[in-house]
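Our preliminary data section would be incomplete without showing what the modeling component actually yields. Below, a chain of 638 amino acids is followed by its predicted structure, encoded as tokens that our downstream tools consume directly.
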Amino acid sequence: MPKQEVNVDLWVARQLDDNHIKYCAQGSDVLEIDEALKTASKNGTGKEGYPEYTAVIDDFVLVIEDKADTSKQARYEYGVVSLDTASVKDYAVNGALWYAKHIAQNSTFKKVFAVGVSGDDKHRLITPLYVDDRESYKQLPDLETFVSFSPENITQYYVMNVLGVDTNTEKATEELLHDAGELHEKLRTYGTLKDQDKALVVAGIMLALDEIDKGGFSIDSLKGDDVEGARDGDKIMDAIKRRLKRSNVSPPAKCDTLLAEFSIIQTSFRLNTINDTLGKTPLKYYTQFLYDKIFRRIKFHESSEDFIGRFYSEFMSYSGGDGQALGIILTPRHITDLMCELVDVKPTDTVLDPTCGTGGFLISAMHKMIHDANGISQVRDIKKKQLHGIELQSNMFATAVTNMILRDDGNANIVCGDFLADSPKKLQLKGATVGLMNPPYSQGTKDDPDQYEIAFTKHLLDSLVEGARCAVIVPQSAMTGKSKAEKKIKAEILKHHTLNGVITCNTNTFYNVGTNPVIAVFTAHEPQDPEAEAMFIDFKDDGYIVRQHVGLVAGNDVLDKKQHLLDVWEGIDEAPSAFCVKSTVKADDEWLHSFFYFNDEIPTEQDFDNAIADYLTFQIDMVGHGRGYLFGFGDEDA
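Predicted structure:
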């Protein structure tokens, strides 16, 4: 076997190991599959033939063939994978399909994925086919990794890509958006609430609902009494107070701020008056709606999804605004989760989000930390000591605290205040080893440079402990540093901290907002080594797509694309420069992939042939139209 092909074999084996896929080389430890392969010779002689690797995952079989040269990935005739002897022997996809069909024909395994792999460390192709019990095949989109075939993902991959059915996650997202739309309409119709009050009413009711299992609240108790102290809003506020007390929310000023934000529940006449159409108060209607459709999702579904934050975003979009006047752009869950992975949040970390909004980053960090925690004691410390948030807007502060209380609880270290007003030395006392942030956008000016996104970034880095990891998501413009003030701040960052890399995100990440974001990752208080290389990655194709009437949703290949990004980021895998460029950095550089990108693709013979053919076609056309002089000769020379 050629050395280059051995390298591909080893890469595939690493992928299978990394994704906990138990495999066999040149055969199978499953008797009936091994028996089927004893007559699977690529020459069609009926003798034995074995693929590079086979694996059995649940009731699926994975068959893998690989080649060193991407020109040997697949051969088609009339758009169909060719199964003649030469094609099966010489091409990865064709060989994999040959073996997969043989297994489907001669064993009880009827769900078989045939995967052809070719290429080198940087330029690689992975093409999967699905072979069903009718022995036909379906070609699926190319992959970057084998994460889709891991035991925890293969069924979802099959459901989404082979059956074409929405997963439970997609259904839940669509239901959530539908519920948000319906509730928004009811809040507007029956409550006449201001935009900023809608999320507060939702958050306050959710806190009251959390008292049901403690015997401190009952939906049936909401009877529409009009006597002060017995109104529905009074009963909900009493439950909120008990829930805050149960969570030991302190100091008193913090509790007072929360109660002031929720006071609309108690003071609104319309919310507390029986509506003739509903036959009950709007508050009781909203409470029953939230209990049935939202509350139980949060309480009994372990997820890093910021449900109340999603509601907040939806309410703002339905109302014709999204908080942009204040620079508020809430971060999608898949981004908060990704950023936690990029900085490798651990159970021993202390996390700071100084512009925490509705708490999305803190929820994702807590979810990951608890998942990896060792015992109840460590989980308790994570919630009570290791999550710190600051939020300037009091209504969003109340929403963030509610979010964390409903997750039992992690709210103790969320404060309502101005991050920029606190000195870095004071903030360092929090001992934060991880910083995560989505700062207010487009608020900085030449007269107020402290409001630039890059200024928020520097302030966060200065506020972390030495060696802390930091990830921020900001507009691309923050990485270019066009103004003198921004260039100066970038220079200060490199003087005191290290830029590890910048990832260009999907332009629709903040759908309907019109911001092209990037994720920048730093190490705090370690000056930039002039010889050290940072990574600049183009991750615009992250697998997320815009679906009409729904917005940004996960496509079928998001797991694969995310895993490829993480593999490249962690140095496990290499990638062509179109995806990742490594370079030393200076303050005057634009910290973007597009600034450092160069094309390292080696043209193939086919590329050369196509270029020559295109040139000759162009030249003949020009001469034919009497314009041969452009090539140095006139009509008489032609």
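Residues 318-327 have pLDDT under 50 and may be disordered. The CA atoms of residues 385 and 413 lie 7 Å apart. Preliminary results of this kind motivate Aim 1 of the renewal.
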